[in-house]
Amino acid sequence: MAWRLPPLAVLLLLVAAAVAPLSSAVRPVSDAHRSVAAELFAASPDDLETTYEAVRTFKMLGVQRDKGLDGKACKLAAHTLSSSSSPAKDLFQAVQIAGVLGCSVDAGVYDDVASRLKAVIKDTDSLLEFYYSVGGLLSLKEQGHSVVLSDADSTFHAIKALSQSDGRWRYDTNSAESSTFAAGIALEALAGVVSLSDAEVDPSMIGVVKNDIVKLFGTIKSYDDGTFYFDEKYVDGSEYKGPITTSASVVRGVTSFANVVSGKLNIPGEKILGLAKFFLGIGLPGSAKDCFNQIESLSLLENNRIFVPLILSLPSKVLSLTSKDQLKVEVTTVFGSAAPPLRVNLVQVLGSDSKIITTDSK
């Protein structure tokens, strides 16, 4: 893209599409992130959660995985899935690992896992148990297995019953405090219920949840530079999550819900843009957990249905009208990919004396 401009012009740019530009001070995901991810996950993890985060991060970044890690991860997942004592959380993570790596698991094992997860859903009032069970079933469905949640409406209502008036969620009926992190996993679970249902989920309830999301974004925090993020408060003695983990939970939940319902979510674009700026502003993460949350959140924001953030870079040089210099604007996604076709409008051009030279030029 190129435009001819008056000398010493200062540009204010507006992208005229369902996208938004970040300043050139913010840089997209790069090879440096890939190197850091490889270092942070270098030690072969022994637990399911870290194993999933490692293989998922490598897949999103396109990092070649060690074959030894893949084999160990599949063995761990298969053992967990075949064990009758594995709780819903372990089954959920094992199914996800198998999905990322394409592990070979007997269909009968998956049938048994699906039955066990459905049984958990019927008997629980815990948000986390709903999350793990619904998420596990959804992962099975995404891997090509026939999975239907026949009582989807009642499950949706049971999860929704834990919501609070400020858009946050409780972890169970006994929780006195609401949680922003819990809101994210609740929205992700509700999205899973919609995907697993064999009939349309009550449209009025979908509308209520959309309104809950608006309220949730009313609690978002910000910095003066346009960065937006979610933070967690102390909840019932639980471990403090921190803004990276909490923001990542909300991004997962909101993007998941937006992908399965019709219509738009009434979320201001600048807040989605600000969340992307927050995760890019982390730079190179210092822990494996932060790395996973950063990369997955940016991956989801790059492909969401709400508002797609783009990184816009301008050259830092003086342009001359007499020599017919052209302004070249580089636009990429948060992952550094080329931006989709778009139109850039010059909203206003100011000369060196701060006087307006032109407006609304394309």
From TrEMBL:
One Pfam family name is Ribophorin_II_2nd
Q: State the superkingdom.
A: Eukaryota
Q: Could you tell me which residue ranges the Ribophorin II N-terminal domain spans?
A: 30-302
Signal peptide limits: 1-25
**Which cell locations does it reside in?**
Endoplasmic reticulum membrane
Pathway(s) annotated for this protein in UniProt:
Protein modification; protein glycosylation
Which InterPro entries does the entry link to? Ribophorin_II_2nd (IPR055375), Ribophorin_II_N (IPR055373), Swp1 (IPR008814)
Membrane topology is:
Multi-pass membrane protein
Q: Which GO terms describe its cellular component?
A: oligosaccharyltransferase complex
UniProt keyword terms in alphabetical order: Endoplasmic reticulum, Signal
GO biological process, any = protein N-linked glycosylation
Tell me, in one coarse class, where this protein mainly resides: endoplasmic reticulum
Annotated transmembrane regions: none
Q: Which residues form the Ribophorin II second domain?
A: 310-358
The record's function comment reads: Subunit of the oligosaccharyl transferase (OST) complex that catalyzes the initial transfer of a defined glycan (Glc(3)Man(9)GlcNAc(2) in eukaryotes) from the lipid carrier dolichol-pyrophosphate to an asparagine residue within an Asn-X-Ser/Thr consensus motif in nascent polypeptide chains, the first step in protein N-glycosylation. N-glycosylation occurs cotranslationally and the complex associates with the Sec61 complex at the channel-forming translocon complex that mediates protein translocation across the endoplasmic reticulum (ER). All subunits are required for a maximal enzyme activity.
What assembly does the database describe for this protein? Component of the oligosaccharyltransferase (OST) complex.
Similarity comment: Belongs to the SWP1 family.
Q: What is the protein name given in its UniProt record?
A: Dolichyl-diphosphooligosaccharide--protein glycosyltransferase subunit 2
Provide the species name: Aegilops tauschii subsp. strangulata
